[in-house]
Amino acid sequence: MEFIVISALNGLVYGLLLFMVSAGLTLIFGMMGIVNFAHASFYMLGAYLSFTIARISNFWLALLIAPLIVMAAGMFIERFMLRRVHGFGHSQQLLLTFGIAFVFEELVKLFWGNFPVAYRPPPLLSGPAFSLFGTNFPSYRVFVAAVAIVLLGLLYLLLQKTRIGIIVRASVQRPGMVSALGHNVPLVFLGVFGVGAWMAGLAGAVGGALLTTSPTMSGEMSVIAFVVVVVGGLGSLLGAFIASLLIGLLTSFSVGFQVSLADVAQLFGYGEQARQIGGLLTLEISSMSASLPALLMLVVLLTRPAGLMGDRN
Amino acid sequence: MTKDIIQLTDLRKRFGESEIIRGVDLGVKRGERHALIGPNGAGKSTLFHLISGLYKPSSGDIRLNGDSIAGLAPHLITRRGLSRSFQITTIFPRLSVYENLRIAAMARHGRRYALFSLASKATVINRDTDELLELVRLTQARDKFAGDLTYSEQRALEIGMAIGPGADVILLDEPMAGMSREETHYMLNLIRDITQGKTLLVVEHDMEVVFSLCDRISVLVYGEVIASGTPEEIRSNGRVQEAYLGEVPA
Amino acid sequence: EPLKIAVIEAFSGPNAQTAIPFVEGVRYAIGKLNKEGGFNGEPIVVTEYDSLNQTAGAAEKLKAAIADGARIIIQSTNSAITAQISEDVRKYNLRNKGKEILFMMEGSEAAEFTAEKCQFWAFKTASNPFIRIKALVSAMKDTGKLGSKVYSINQNYSYGVDHEKAQALYAKEAGAQIVGSTLHDTAKIQDFSPYVAQIKASGADTILSGNWGNDIILFMRALGDAGLKVNVGNTSLDTTGALSAMGPSALGAVLVKLYNLEAGGKAGETFAEDFKAVIGHYPYNEEPTTAFGTLLLGEALKKVSQPGGKVDIKAVALALENVSYDSPAGRWSFRKEDHQLLLPVAVSEVSKEARYKVDGTDMGFKLLKIVSPEDSAVPVDPKCKMDRPS
Amino acid sequence: MMRIGLLASIVALLLGAPLVLSGHVVGVLTTALIAVLFAMAFNLLSGRAGMLSFGHAAYFAIGGFAVIHAMQAVEKGLLWLPTPLLPLVGGVAGLIGGLCAGYFATLRSGVYFSMVTLALAELLHAIAPNLGSIFGGEVGLTTMRMPWTSFDYGNEVHVYYTVVAWVVLCIGLLYAYNQTLFGRLTVGVREAERRVSFLGYNLHHTKIIVFGVSAMFSGIAGGLLAFTTESINYSILGMGMSASVVLHTFVGGSGVFFGPAVGAFVFALFGSLVSDMTKNWLLYQGILFVGIMMFMGDGLAMLWLRIVNEFKERNWSALKLRALLLPPGLLVAAGVVTLLELTSRILDQQYAAIVSRTKAWPPVSLYGFNWNPTALATWLVPILAIGAGAGLVFLAISRAGREAAPRAALAGEHAR
Amino acid sequence: MTLLSVTNLHSHYGKSHILHGMSFSLAAGEMIALLGRNGSGRSTAMKAIMGLVAPTRGSIKLDTKELAGLPSYKINRAGIAYVPEERLAFSNLTVEENLHIGVAAPRPNAKAWSLEEMYGFFPRLKERRNVKAGSISGGEQQMLTLCRSLLGQPSVILIDEPTEGLAPKIVDHLADVMRDINRQGVASILVEQKMTIALKLCSRCLIMGHGAIVFEGTPEELIATPSVRREWLEVA
Ligand SMILES: Nc1ncnc2c1ncn2[C@@H]1O[C@H](COP(=O)(O)OP(=O)(O)OP(=O)(O)O)[C@@H](O)[C@H]1O
Ligand SMILES: Nc1ncnc2c1ncn2[C@@H]1O[C@H](COP(=O)(O)OP(=O)(O)OP(=O)(O)O)[C@@H](O)[C@H]1O
Ligand SMILES: [Mg+2]
Ligand SMILES: [Mg+2]
């Protein structure tokens, strides 16, 4: 019981953080059609910047400024880099962001060093929020969850109450035609990309203090954010939300399942033989928990390619 | 035996809530040129998609030469001798016109996994390709990228691709769309030539073309065939006039 | 003929930060050896090569090094690369009799190198999970930091699995009970709180872990966040940046290491200050490992050095089997049977009272105990079958 | 004709290389050639068939592991196979692995395809450490090449010639593949999948075969690597390898047959040479890649072809523009490198230690000069160089731009 | 009163020179037909006016405002709408979303078009409004794109081959709709293959040949000059 409640809470918080990272990715992916490999780099940049700003001023100011700087960086990349290669198609953009992610990682190593930095929650949020079964639940985790939920609300308003969403999706397909209908397509793209980067920056500013802030954080986050986006369905925010929580809970609970194929075989009376064969058969689910998302993605892709909430197929 | 080469029985297709094809019964005789006309959104293209295997029917049967092909994958249907063109041109834009047609001609000879035969040595296929080129009058544009052709040339190529696999039954979806009068004229002759001895099912809005090309016409309105007959019968059919033709052109 | 030594290390890529302290230790030691006269009357020449952190890259750089005339190779980080170089050296020596080269593995902890992969031409100046955990558990027991219920959490690959085995073995020897054990993906877990919940549920009062890198940092933070009060024993709490990233949640955790700056009293202080004067900072990370390892090599070199002589690697290797070096904490020497280093092991605690503060924090590693070479040694692995040159 | 001459001279150069080059450089060449083959194999899938795989390291690695196991078997006498034929085992394993994985991956297309390949590779990477008997655990698997006739294979050069032979043979086969009927069909798959199936081809089977062939040649490349290093380790399954083949292929240009080879060769040499000069080489490699993607998106090989074409057409104005762009481009590059190198030296831990000890900022040395980090000029010089270079580039382009014809905005936007 | 005037317009696709100094004008509320053979450059002329193909030389004036060289969205906001021959519906959006994208604020002293009116013109669109535009029929797409452009409240609308692919009955209906739109004060340029429709709807006919205007006159004049028809419209 205790394990279930605590794991559920942890899973939810982790899931919400994943949502913050992947929301921007799915927005850019779904609306602009750009597979943005640099998205997790924005996340990393947000963490490092807010770490630095928090050090010279305070955490709250960092939370405000760092995502804005990341947004500016994102807009620069869109305006002067991605747009240049727009004519060559999406794969060119994908490759470019791939390279940019690479450069970001190296730059972070250059400026901040190739090791984790001490980015930790501010004193105000350092204590426990409440205590369950004798385990503390940190207030910073509650804060992370709250930020993610506010962000979800804002995004929902932006997309439901404005035409931005449909304009961008139309522009991806036929920018010329949308322009001929009176919309400044480049500006819209710039804005959407900026917002996506801002969200990743915010996620980094918040998440960097929850997890670690290190040069490897982008690589680690990158794959998992793609999993969220694919599982949720390309471009579906709701899908990304559900998938994030799903993956959060999945990784959280799988830790408790020290079950292997051999144990399954045991049920049929073949446990010993299976254990003798070893290898995959004795591999416990709990020790694969970080790979479960990839497995989930594979299963979803092969059975329900449009994802949970996607609208294709 | 003059049994119908294509036989649709109580064919239905629904997308979510709406049923687009509502119980179509239609027979196309071997060797005839058959037109399918009807208002926009009547389901003509959908019917083509069903016959050619792009969509699976919700219910009902489709028979080609007496065998059911309902729900078969497109390539299997093509191999059984039915091929089609698309309303929206579907060619290989960054390949030359010649390469485009050669891929189509390869299919005719069943060279589907020809991993060990050099393209330049495939004389029969190359000859067929040249013939196809001539047939669709693209010999001049042989080495141009297909994507660089003019619209009407692309349409001609599209038709070339449809006849390339050498099927007996050809489905053409609005082959004349976007053509000028003289091109239409040319295209008309072209279609006549290439469907010599074959069966043609064509969707077309240009009534002049339909009336001069086809032996029989079926009229599809909101997913149902309301009439089927010779051009004269259709022209004078009151329901068809009301639903589709409007006042008969002078 | 001057002796050429090649340092092949991951100067770029994700392991670069881990590699730097090792390299600094080598630089320091070679500087010292050269001040004491070098080899054969000439200074020892050291060239550094970037392994690109890939086995293939390392193999290529090894060839470059050999082409440049290197006779001794030193390498520390990344066991996969160590394995690559070790094998390459073995094959090279087989194919080039008389021009042998010597390989100093000065940091790779994997036990295989003195077991199935052991060979005459490679010497390992590092411990292994068994040595470390043996020392750790005994020191924790002696200082009252070993509870009765132990949870073991490790990374799911050969190194982590060895740790798990060692933890089970020595915890049992010390009379504690293993109440749970987990192997998890390496360097992929973002949030360790589920594991902490699992540990809490098991009722453990002590955690033993061989995790390194982010895996230990994140784990310690999750532990601190949950407010779980347990003893922790680990091998990598001192990675650059780790203490500052973990913050106060690291306090009280126990580290087992090849050396601690507080060891050895006066001699230890001299070493620390000397190192700082040469390299620029105190050697609180892995620097001592390579410094002492290389100085141990230096002892062997001194044995065979004769001004104007040729470089005879076989003689160096044979000498290495018999020499020893006295570090401030105790004697370092090789065991002939498997070329495993026998060394004193330092067990310390993360504390604000530590003499040397780390990472700009107010914390450091306070020495708890030095476990003597005799007590830390583990038996020779029967899988080690060493072909000795006749 | 000129092309054949060029190819012949390249092959001749490759054959002659060991006569003049040191053993180490021969080793570098060997790895570069393997990267070349891998990139070419990858491009069969990504460039020709339009299926961008993000997990191609898997097939490369499968080939490698298979060859190591085969070599071990040969060493133990369980298998008889002449040493130079060993990489073939990698091809077979790659083919089998590729057909199996391809069956699933090619069920999807576009980004979804990429994601399936990514997921498959990630899973294999995650599982590999647990299968010690197959993948050898952390320290990997090792073996030794057995002598064959007069080749004792202890010598770098013997290995090199074997690799050259395999690479040349495989590239020849890849070229031949493109000339076959099936090779032509492959391109059709990239251009319009739907049409392919409506022509009567089984799209899924076609794609599986392409995937398999690509994986087979990747497997040979992996096998060659295992053959050269006589060892293999599961880290080769990681994202890094999959990523680098993507970089290589697109730097070189996926639209030209030899493009990937150019990219792989250039980057492999870049890695070997620059890594010895600066620890920031990965950063420069990244910047180089980004630059190429931005300014010559279809790759180095295409750029080369274009220049050749301009020469043939005597298009002096275009050539003049390129020549005009070169010096300012180099100026910018020099400025950027200087700036980054200076920054990296100053942010280095050792330097920071010196600063905190001596409370002074000692000069750093770069290109044999001493740069004083507190002097304005130190920073101004590279910044000015970048500014001036960029300005000149901009000037040259806008000059030329006014003459060039504008692009159609709706081009390629036709109804899909 | 001249609303739109095009003078000496040149345009290229890459190296090929398509428009060779085209000039014409359009009066307020007028409807003209632009005729010519396939490939004579009529579509290109429309795209050039719309800024979708950059005019290399020449001027395009709406009232007094120079449009040449402006980006398309500014040209649209100035009051020109365009219905492309390729239709270019946004296939991944629903019919209604397609229409929403076109909506702009009404122009002062001009008729304001509303969504309801569009559905009134083409009830079929209303039925299909929640379907993805990619899956509606070709003819429906044609209706959709016309309405989408009209919702931008243009003062000039450029319509490229609107009857292509439409059922005869709808063609008649569409003709009525276009006439209706014109009567409400929207000046139109119509590119049309179906001569009957063009002649019926328009007050003036322009014929393009070799990228320039080669004939200009009323439908009656055109009918009366078979030589022009033969030379520029049909194959001899
Ligand atoms: N995938 C789909 N999902 C939902 N509705 C669809 C789908 N495909 C077609 N429809 C609907 O089915 C109807 C028939 O479409 P179809 O394309 O078959 O018409 P058509 O007869 O070819 O018309 P046209 O002559 O205009 O091309 C249309 O109203 C269209 O909206
Ligand atoms: N994107 C393009 N790239 C290159 N040439 C083009 C392009 N689009 C059109 N052309 C060429 O420009 C010329 C004029 O084309 P345009 O589409 O304007 O003619 P049109 O009069 O509208 O004919 P159609 O009846 O085919 O619509 C044609 O020769 C065509 O081949
Ligand atoms: Mg249709
Ligand atoms: Mg046109």
From TrEMBL, chain A:
Q: How does it sit in the membrane?
A: Multi-pass membrane protein
The UniProt transmembrane annotation reads: 12-39, 59-82, 94-119, 139-159, 187-211, 223-256, 277-303
The scientific name of the source species is Bosea minatitlanensis
Which keywords does UniProt give here?
Amino-acid transport, Cell membrane, Membrane, Transmembrane, Transmembrane helix, Transport
UniProt-listed Pfam families = BPD_transp_2
Family matches, as InterPro entries: ABC_transp_permease, BCAA_transport_permease
What is the name attached to this protein's record?
Branched-chain amino acid ABC transporter permease
Report the superkingdom from the record. Bacteria
Q: Where in the cell is it found?
A: Cell membrane
The taxonomy runs:
Bacteria, Pseudomonadati, Pseudomonadota, Alphaproteobacteria, Hyphomicrobiales
Q: Return the similarity comment.
A: Belongs to the binding-protein-dependent transport system permease family. LivHM subfamily.
The keyword Transmembrane is annotated on this UniProt entry: yes
From TrEMBL, chain B:
Q: Does the keyword Nucleotide-binding apply?
A: yes
Q: Which domain of life is it from?
A: Bacteria
UniProtKB keywords: ATP-binding, Nucleotide-binding, Transport
Extract the GO molecular function terms from the UniProt entry: ATP binding
InterPro entries associated with the record: AAA+_ATPase (IPR003593), ABC_AA/LPS_Transport (IPR051120), ABC_transporter-like_ATP-bd (IPR003439), BCA_ABC_TP_C (IPR032823), P-loop_NTPase (IPR027417)
Query: Any idea where the ABC transporter domain is?
Result: 6-247
**Xref: SUPFAM superfamilies:** P-loop containing nucleoside triphosphate hydrolases
Signal peptide (residue range): none
Official protein name in the record = ABC transporter ATP-binding protein
Q: State the species of origin.
A: Bosea minatitlanensis
UniProtKB/TrEMBL annotation, chain D:
Q: How does the protein's chain sit in the membrane according to the entry? A: Multi-pass membrane protein
Q: Does the record carry Membrane as a key word?
A: yes
> Which compartments is it annotated to reside in?
Cell membrane
Q: Does the keyword Iron apply?
A: no
For this UniProt entry, which segments traverse the membrane?
Answer: 26-45, 57-74, 86-105, 157-177, 208-226, 256-275, 281-307, 319-340, 376-397
The record ties this protein, via Pfam families, to: BPD_transp_2
Entry keywords, A to Z: Cell membrane, Membrane, Transmembrane, Transmembrane helix
Its primary localisation, in coarse terms, equals: membrane
Q: Which domain of life is it from?
A: Bacteria
Matching entries from PANTHER family are given as:
ABC TRANSPORTER ATP-BINDING PROTEIN, HIGH-AFFINITY BRANCHED-CHAIN AMINO ACID TRANSPORT SYSTEM PERMEASE
Q: What is the protein named?
A: Branched-chain amino acid ABC transporter permease
Q: Which organism is it from?
A: Bosea minatitlanensis
From TrEMBL, chain E:
What CDD domains is this protein classified in? ABC_TM1139_LivF_branched
SUPFAM superfamilies assigned: P-loop containing nucleoside triphosphate hydrolases
List each copy of the ABC transporter domain by range. Answer: 4-235
For this UniProt record, the keywords arranged alphabetically read as follows: Amino-acid transport, ATP-binding, Nucleotide-binding, Transport
Its domain of life? Bacteria
| Statement: the UniProt record of this protein carries the keyword Transport | yes
Q: What does the record give under GO molecular function?
A: ATP binding
Q: Which family does it belong to?
A: Belongs to the ABC transporter superfamily.
> What protein does this entry describe?
ABC transporter ATP-binding protein
Annotated organism of origin: Bosea minatitlanensis
